[in-house]
Model the fold of this input.
Amino acid sequence: EAQVTQNPRYLITVTGKKLTVTCSQNMNHEYMSWYRQDPGLGLRQIYYSMNVEVTDKGDVPEGYKVSRKEKRNFPLILESPSPNQTSLYFCASSPGAGRSSDTQYFGPGTRLTVL
Amino acid sequence: AQSVTQLGSHVSVSEGALVLLRCNYSSSVPPYLFWYVQYPNQGLQLLLKYTSAATLVKGINGFEAEFKKSETSFHLTKPSAHMSDAAEYFCAVSDRKGSNYKLTFGKGTLLTVNP
Done:
C-alpha cells in the first residue's frame, strides 16, 4: 500500500530534550515536506526537500532541522524543543516531477507536546 | 504569493442537508486548487483537485467543487450530508516557488453534522 508513515504518533517531552520525528514514504517520491498544524492557523510549511541531500526552509523553520540521506526518509529534528513547538506535525510527499498539480500525500500526523 | 481564505471556521448542518464550504483564493497565475479532509485523529486525505481540465470537479464521498475564475472561488458542496462527513476541511492552493511545491492552506472549516 502506497503510504507516508510517521513515528511516533504521539510524544510528550520536556523543554530542551532533543527529539526526532521520522517520516518515510514508499512511493519513490522526489519531493517531501514537513508542516505543522495549529488551531486557527491551518498548516504551515517548516522544511522541504526536492531530492537526496537537497533541503530548504519553508515558512516557519526556526527551531527545526531536517536531513535527507535517503530518498524515502525525511526526519524532522528538534534539537532543543520549546513549548511553542507543541503542535501537530505532518509529513507529506509528492512526485515532484515539475508538476504543481501533483497531489501531495500526507502522513497520519505526530502530536507533540513540549512541557 | 498565493493565498486561500475559507469563510466560516465552523459550519453546522443537519443530516441530509446541503453542505457548502466556501473557499476563495488569490493567485497571480492560473491556480491549482485542492480540498483535503481531516477526520478526527487522522491525517489529511485528498477529496478533489482542480487542474484546469474542467471547472466542475468531482471528488470522493459525493463531494464536488466548482472553479469560478470570475469570483476567484472554489467552493465545496455535497447535496446531502451524512454523519460520517463530520470532519475538518481544508482548501489549499499550489504555491510553487522554484523547486518548492508548497501548498498554502486555508485555516480550515470544521463541519458538524447533526442527526
